[in-house]
Every structure is written in C-alpha cells, then in structure tokens.
Amino acid sequence: MSTFPRRLSAVTAACLLFLAGSRAAHAVVLDWDSVAWAPGALINSYDLNGDAVNDVTVKITSQNANIWQNDPTSGLQTPVVNQTLTGGLVPAQNSLMIAANLHTNSNSTVQISFTGPNGFLANNVSFTLFDIDVTTNSDIISNIYGVAANGTHVAATITNLGSAVTPGGSGLTYTLTGNAVSPDNSGNGNATISFGTSISDVFFTFGNTAGAPRYQDIAIGDVTFTPVPEINPTVTAVGSCVLAFGLTVFARRRAKLRASGLHAARP
C-alpha cells in the first residue's frame, strides 16, 4: 500500500491541529482600576498581559511648564488616577484625571503609544473622555488622530457625545468643545474616541478658549485595543501548511508517474 495517502493525511491533520492552536489576538484593556499612577507623573508604561513587556505607554506633555493643578476633591497633584470624574459610570470606576491652568498658549497633549515584544500596532482602539464642559472657559479637545504604520495620520471616529459637548470640524480637524457645565459624576461631558484601523499611537490636545489661564479638567477612561503583531503567527502557519500540502501532492503525483513509466517499460 502506498504511504503517500497516509503522509498526506498526516500533513493535513498536523496543519489543522496547528491552526486550531493558533489563537487570534484578543482585546486588551488598560483598566485604571488595576494599574498605578503616581500623582503628578507625566508618563507611565504598563505590561497588561504579564509577559514583562510593556504593552501601552501614556505620556502627557504641555507647551508651558508648571501648568498642572491639584484635584480640588482629593487634593492630589494631577495627572492622577482617581474617581473625581466618573463619566456617569455605575458603579463608579477610576479614570486618569488631568487638571491644569490652560489658555490658548498652554495646551496639553496626550499621547497613547502601543508597544510589544517585537513592536506591534493596535486595532480597535477606543476610550472615552469625561467632563468636557465649561468651567470659566470651555474645554476644547482638538488635534485628534492616530498614527498608521506608514506614519500617516488617521482620523478618529467620535461617538457617544454628551449634551455638554459640541462637535466641530471633521476628520483630522475634528474638535470637541464644552458648551455647558457638566457635573463630575455625569456623562454629559463624555465623548468616545475610536479607531477602526491599525495604529501605533493616539494623540489629542487638551486646551480651552482664549483668555487668561483658568483651571480646566478632563479624565481619560479605560483604553481598550487589540494587539496586531508584526508577523501574524496564524497567517505564517497557513502559508507553511499550504506549502507542505502542495509539496506532498506533487511528490505523490511524481511517484505515480514513475510507477506508470516502469510498468509501461516492462516486456
């Protein structure tokens, strides 16, 4: 009996088992209830899956120094993780609160970067900003974009706008401006920012309307994303299996042709 059908079956079975074990990437959450942020720190990185490699980094910068303010509720220096601004979530959850004396020349920029053992992009990135509203001046969120693998800017999708938030512009010029006072525990100042394509970073600017520096605050809710490895192991496995399958079939056909030639040559 020919060994090729057995060999073919073995290759097929091995490929199926390998592909069954190759799991697709799952969503990861930067959950502010499960990570630490030292009050006043402007950058932190987090390992979210326990492999000793940081998966996401949050960095906050500003045009001018010394603009950061204490949270009036807790008295802690911001940026800080707390439950002062909850976005109306029930039960209340931690968020990353940012408070500063802002005006048109002291904007703050937030950068969320996605990393990994070999570097990776992130897909389906999404997070909600809390408390975009009016104190003395209006909060303004602008320059909202992701960065694709080739360095181009990617426009965000903005959803779940609260009643205290007025949208403006479109695409890469999108702005979110506070139009009324929103209670700290309300969703009236919420806006969800999402990206449906793979990106390496997210940027947005936190500023306010023209005028003297005034106290402003917002908060960043949990950040969800799906890691996208540089080399997808499942895709690689599929290619290897297809190649092995093709070589096995080719070898089987070649053997048959040889056998046919030998029979034909016999007297």
How does this model look, in words?
With 267 residues, this protein is an alpha+beta fold. The two termini are 24 Å apart. The protein contains two helices and 16 strands. α1 (4-21) packs antiparallel against α2. It has helices at residues 4-21, 233-265; strands spanning 28-30, 43-46, 56-62, 80-82, 95-102, 108-114, 120-130, 139-147, 153-155, 157-159, 165-168, 175-178, 191-195, 201-208, 214-220, 223-229. β8 and β9 form a beta hairpin.
Concise overview:
The chain has 267 residues and is of the alpha+beta class. It has helices spanning 4-21, 233-265, and strands at 28-30, 43-46, 56-62, 80-82, 95-102, 108-114, 120-130, 139-147, 153-155, 157-159, 165-168, 175-178, 191-195, 201-208, 214-220, 223-229.
Largest sheet: 8 strands, antiparallel
Percent helix range: 10-25%
Quote the beta fraction.
25-35%
Distance between the termini: 24 Å
The SSE string, one letter per element, is HEEEEEEEEEEEEEEEEH
Mass-distribution shape? globular
Q: Which whole number gives the mean pLDDT?
A: 82
Query: What ranges have pLDDT less than 50 throughout 5 or more consecutive residues?
Result: 13-23, 230-247, 262-267
Radius of gyration based on Cα positions: 27 Å
* Count of discrete alpha- or pi-helical segments spanning 4 or more residues: 2
